[in-house]
Amino acid sequence: MKSFLRLFSSVKLAIVLLIIITLASILGTLILQHRSPAEYADRYGDIANILIRLEITKLYQSLWFSSLLFLFAVNILVCTLSRLSPKLKKAFQPKFETEKKKLLSLKTKASFKKNQNLEKTRDDIQQTLSSKRYRLKTKEEENRVFLLARKRNLGLFGSDIVHLGLLIIILGGIISGWGGFRTNLNISEGESIPVPQADFHLRLDKFVTEYHPNGSVRDWKSTLTVLENGTDVLSKTIEVNHPLSYKGFVFYQSSYGWNWENPTLEIWAKKKNEPAFLEKMELGLGEKVKLGDENIEITVLNFVPDFIIGENNEIATRSLEPNNPAAFIEGWQDEEKVFSGWIFAKFPDFGRMHSDIETDLTFELKDLKAAQYSGIQMSRDPGANFIWVGCTLLMIGLCVAFFWPPREIKVILEESQNKTDVVAGGIATKNREDFQSEFDNVMESIRRLK
After folding, report:
1. Residue 190: pLDDT above 90?
2. Which residue among 108, 118, 388, 420 sits deepest, i.e. has the most Cβ atoms within 10 Å of its Cβ?
3. CATH number of 100-152+405-448
4. Could you tell me the residue ranges of all domains in the chain?
5. If DSSP codes are grouped into helix, strand and coil, which group holds residue 90?
6. pLDDT confidence of residue 168
7. Residue 422 and residue 427: Cα distance in Å, rounded?
8. Contact partners, residue 258, CB within 8 Å, separation at least 6
């Protein structure tokens, strides 16, 4: 048991654990958390499997990281308890000093004689120290009085308050690590979706993308409504750094995108040999539109927002951004296919049309419309309140320890021939120069009293 207490009361152990936890936390910040194995393999290559096996990809939920936090908490608790008993005795069972030589050995000390009896001298000293907000205790013997004056006793426990704050922060970290989660939600305007692990729904009433004059995105704003049992409970417009909080869940504005499942495309039909001919059409995927008097029906069979030819010459999209929009169209005349191929919004002359029947028709993809969705990052952090409480206690403890240190003045009075010898000593753990000045002022005030 003694070896256990010796080990876990070690400051060196606390420093080592703190360094390891800090380094691990930095690693957890640099490595993306809770992603798919494929994404890790694509981003980190050969070391992806090592990161996954070591649980670095879910660091704050890993057993080894929680064990480090637990050991650090035990270290703090043992250190605190091993030092708490002497502090409690000093605070609530103080000892009077009865030997003059011990007081005179202190750095802050004074000795003088008062031409008055013991009782009057004692009352004067008590009055003076009380005016300086010292709390006094008195012990009397024959012809002798012992005074103990103290203030700012709370400063004795500044480090213990700090330790308590750290323990609560660690508890909050463990709770958040094991009980918290993050996920991304994509919601279109007017859509209502159930919130994972919650008993309410979230609806997107309005989504707005604001742009700078140069065309870059300035801000995203989403008006969200919380619904419980089909009833609106709370509405708020969120934007970056201004989230919505409800029942321990926090919703952040993180991104935006387009729903390309059913876009509306504007296609222009022209004729090479007839410059005045222009037919504008709007159609969605699978929709058929008759081309003027040509007895031809146009159909859009496929659409990709960022056209790329992948492996095995397969058509794919590089991203969900409309960087290179392309549509695959077909033209039918009665039961016979006239043409088919890809047309591009940004490269109208790069069409890949194949005609089964000779025609001078050309097509351009002029515009496209799709419903935007708002990318909402949702998080649940059940330990957040513990962490806030712990941080508050930590700051209070530091302030108490550094700016409210305890001060103590011990006095021995001894009467002889109707005169009183006064011997006093002062103790302060911090701000000793300030305490020395206060002590000298107190002694000077006592000397002057008659």
Report:
1. no
2. 420
3. 3.30.310.80
4. 2-89, 100-152+405-448, 179-260+373-394, 264-370
5. helix
6. 95
7. 17
8. 305, 320, 322, 370, 371, 372, 373
| Among the listed residues 196, 193, 248, 179, the one whose alpha carbon sits nearest the alpha carbon of residue 225 | 193
Count the Cβ atoms, other than its own, within 10 Å of residue 336.
9
With contact defined as beta carbons under 8 Å apart, do 158 and 174 qualify?
Answer: no
Instruction: Supply the pLDDT for residue 395.
Output: 96
What is the rounded CA–CA span in Å between residue 170 and residue 258? 41
Which two three-digit tokens encode residue 167?
């323990």
Mean local confidence (pLDDT), 426-450: 91
CA distances from 326 to 260, 303, 348, 349 (A): 12, 6, 10, 12
Collapsed DSSP state (helix, strand, coil) of residue 136: strand
Please name which of 34, 198, 4, 9 lies closest in space to residue 85, comparing C-alpha atoms: 9
pTM: 0.68
CA 282, chain centre distance (Å): 47
Burial per residue of 293-327, b for 16 or more beta-carbon CB atoms within 10 angstroms, e otherwise:
ebebebbbeebbbbbeeeeeeeeebeeeebebbbb
> What is the SS3 assignment for 113?
strand
Instruction: With H, G, I as helix, E, B as strand and everything else as coil, classify residue 128.
Output: helix
CA dihedral 430, 431, 434, 436 (to 10 degrees): 40
Mean pLDDT of the chain: 88
Residue 111: predicted pLDDT: 94
Is the pLDDT confidence value at 351 over 70? no
Confidence (pLDDT) at 4? 66
Question: In angstroms, rounded to a whole number, what is the distance separating the alpha carbons of residues 288 and 286?
Answer: 7
CA angle 226, 235, 215 (to 5 degrees): 110
Q: Is 29 exposed, middle or buried (0-12, 13-18, 19+ CB in 10 A)?
A: exposed
Is the pLDDT assigned to residue 1 strictly greater than 70?
no
89-113 confidence digits (pLDDT tens) = 888 888 999 999 999 999 999 999 9
Q: What percent of the chain has pLDDT over 70?
A: 98
Does 2 have pLDDT greater than 70? no
Q: Within 10 A of 109 (CB to CB), how many other CB atoms are there?
A: 17
Dihedral of the alpha carbons of 388, 393, 394, 397, in degrees to the nearest 10: 170
Q: State the pLDDT at residue 370.
A: 86
Tokens of 137: 């205790």
